[in-house]
Amino acid sequence: MPEHKAIVAAEIGLHARAAAVFVRAVTATGLPVTIRKPGRRSVDARSLLEVMTEDFGHGCEVVLSVDGEALQAGRTLDEVNDALTALSAVLEALEGP
Fold this sequence. Notes:
- There is one protein chain.
- This protein is 42% helix and 18% strand.
- With 97 residues, it is of the alpha+beta class.
- It has a single domain, classed as HPr-like (Histidine-containing Protein, Chain: A), CATH 3.30.1340.10.
- Strand 2 (33-36) and strand 3 (43-44) form a beta hairpin.
- It is globular and about 35 Å long.
């Protein structure tokens, strides 16, 4: 399962506008991306409600991942890794409200 780590840069974390920007970026990939804090359960990164409810605060390290089904659906490992790298960059570039 491909994974990438990132740090949430937005001052208020993944709430409101920052969460919406991130969820739109995830949805645009067409991949079933999940997000979690290390050691915690994953939530669907395509769901604004799930992302906001999980409370990913400013400076929080998160793990983005895609399960093996994406690879079976015709995506290459390189494509999935590129998408996760881009999503990591989105999280690390987000600004405040």
